[in-house]
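Hi support team,

I've been running sequence recovery on a batch of backbones for a student project. Most finish fine, but this one hangs at about 90% for roughly twenty minutes before it completes. I'm not sure whether the input is malformed or the queue is just slow. I've pasted the structure tokens below so you can try to reproduce it. Let me know if you need the job ID as well.

Thanks,
M.K.
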């Protein structure tokens, strides 16, 4: 039988996971990436147990677990340093089957790319979906003057997906979620610290360790869309967070202005009618952009990739339409729910009035003291997910 061909548009986390899973299933895969290199802009990514189990499918899960820098407790704090709640690391591991692993995005991209032959990823290739394909007609993707035909196109071209607009031109796409974020990878402070997220009035900050000795920090402020600092983004962070508890001032002191990334957050609360059309499937932010407040954006892209590969492998060679229909059936309800849960979870740190923030903080403290497990329940149905397919691997790790 002729080897089926797949073109993946976008070499981010979701696109590379899909390419690796399809390659493993016998597809001839070509990945087309617009950027000149695979090195993503410096930022961290957290992989929850659900994504780790998905990565078991391409035999990468254990390598990711080995990169866990912290397995103990974390804290939710107020700007002055008062602890509002404790995140029980052991309880989370017991409930969901492992710790959340924070790593640099470049590390994950390199590991995913290593699952592919060296000639399968083309950078500097701005791909356009010319034809999504249909039964009896291949999909077509163009790059400059070159054209690719394939039995399958996987559009993992991000939040501003051009492929999504081709498939569903009437859909409004992602909209501003009400807040902007800053991200930093920096040297670790000299003084030890407990991983934490800190909530103020309409602002929040997080500091977490990476295994290589650096830290990943992120911040957010609920502000009108399109804002930029009048000087530089480090100065903006100092204005917003410079008087918050340590190690936040220490982190900011160690950062150069050019090391701070700022992005407005957009999410797609109106779901698409499907995640496929013809021979083309959407995944990740191209299909279901979400806020980062549950840390699930990249995790859901990884889930998409292994579920898509599962259905394509399970289907008969001629039943690609059935496989893509099954992919939409499995992924659209789950990701729509997580998009909405992520949006709801951003409401608590968005509170900007002093009385509302004080009531929120008191409620968080009471819940942490009286029922610490309640805080973990927000991830039930998310972090406990397992990929489809036969059970394999160690208990709590392998897909089932």
């Amino acid at each position: 039988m002729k080897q089926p061909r797949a073109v993946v548009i976008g070499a981010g986390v979701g696109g590379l996971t899909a390419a690796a899973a399809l390659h493993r299933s016998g597809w001839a895969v070509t990945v087309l990436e617009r950027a000149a290199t695979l090195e993503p802009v410096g930022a961290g990514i957290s992989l929850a147990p659900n994504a780790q189990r998905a990565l078991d499918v391409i035999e990468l899960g254990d390598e990711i677990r080995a990169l866990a820098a912290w397995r103990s407790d974390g804290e939710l704090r107020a700007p002055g340093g008062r602890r509002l709640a404790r995140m029980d690391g052991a309880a989370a591991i017991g409930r969901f089957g492992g710790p959340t692993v924070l790593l640099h995005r470049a590390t994950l991209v390199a590991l995913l790319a290593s699952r592919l032959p060296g000639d399968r990823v083309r950078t500097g290739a701005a791909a356009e979906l010319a034809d999504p394909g249909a039964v009896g007609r291949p999909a077509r993707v163009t790059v400059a003057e070159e054209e690719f035909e394939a039995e399958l196109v996987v559009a993992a071209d991000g939040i501003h997906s051009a492929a999504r607009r081709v498939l569903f031109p009437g859909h409004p796409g992602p909209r501003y979620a009400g807040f902007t974020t800053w991200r930093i990878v920096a040297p670790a402070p000299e003084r030890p610290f407990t991983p934490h997220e800190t909530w103020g009035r309409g602002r929040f900050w997080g500091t977490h360790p990476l295994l290589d000795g650096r830290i990943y920090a992120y911040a957010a402020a609920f502000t009108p869309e399109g804002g930029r600092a009048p000087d530089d983004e480090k100065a903006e962070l100092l204005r917003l967070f410079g008087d918050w508890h340590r190690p936040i001032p220490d982190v900011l002191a160690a950062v150069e202005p050019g090391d701070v990334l700022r992005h407005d957050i957009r999410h797609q609360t109106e779901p698409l009618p499907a995640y496929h059309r013809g021979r083309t499937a959407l995944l990740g932010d191209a299909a279901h952009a979400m806020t980062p407040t549950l840390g699930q954006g990249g995790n859901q892209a990884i889930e998409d990739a292994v579920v898509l590969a599962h259905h394509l492998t399970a289907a008969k060679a001629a039943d690609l339409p059935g496989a893509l229909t099954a992919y939409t059936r499995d992924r659209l309800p789950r990701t729509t729910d997580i998009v909405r849960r992520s949006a709801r979870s951003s409401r608590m740190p968005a509170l900007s009035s002093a009385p509302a923030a004080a009531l929120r903080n008191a409620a968080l403290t009471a819940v942490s003291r009286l029922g610490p497990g309640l805080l973990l329940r927000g991830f039930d149905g998310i972090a406990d997910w397992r990929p489809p397919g036969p059970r394999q691997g160690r208990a709590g790790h392998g897909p089932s």
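--
Follow-up from support: It reproduced on our side and the slowdown came from queue contention, not your input. DSSP finds 14 helices and 18 strands in the chain. No action needed from you.
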